[in-house]
């Protein structure tokens, strides 16, 4: 993991350590845009699951809000973490909806995930998380 992406990991862990609450705020995400700016977000669980918002969506919304006007959102890298039993952080893959969202805005973004078989943290291109993804013209 590059130094810049390691910084994302640290920021996501620090955010989650500050706000974690079981059943309410269980995931934090940090994104770095192409210009090097970093934006974070935390998962917001609603009383009915449908109203919940993932940390990646919150972070992407914060990043988009930082660039007004016609300038496109260009995300370079995404790291999301969750606290597992024994208080250990774990890098997690985005859910299917967030995979769609990230790849809609930045198909070439690096998304850090933990592999299932090897339990290793590895980079994956956002679009590669959704083989044969339908793409619409913006």
Automatic annotation (TrEMBL):
Molecular function terms, GO-annotated: cytidine deaminase activity; identical protein binding; zinc ion binding
Metal-binding is among the record's keywords: yes
InterPro entries assigned: APOBEC/CMP_deaminase_Zn-bd (IPR016192), CMP_dCMP_dom (IPR002125), Cyt/Deoxycyt_deaminase (IPR050202), Cytidine_deaminase-like (IPR016193)
GO biological process, one term: pyrimidine-containing compound metabolic process
Gene Ontology annotations for the cellular component aspect, listed alphabetically: cytosol
Keyword annotations of the record: Hydrolase, Metal-binding, Zinc
Pfam families to which the protein is assigned, alphabetical: dCMP_cyt_deam_1
Ranges of residues in domain CMP/dCMP-type deaminase: 3-137
Classification via CDD domains: cytidine_deaminase
Homology family: Belongs to the cytidine and deoxycytidylate deaminase family.
Protein name per Swiss-Prot or TrEMBL: Cytidine deaminase
Lineage: Bacteria, Bacillati, Actinomycetota, Actinomycetes, Kitasatosporales
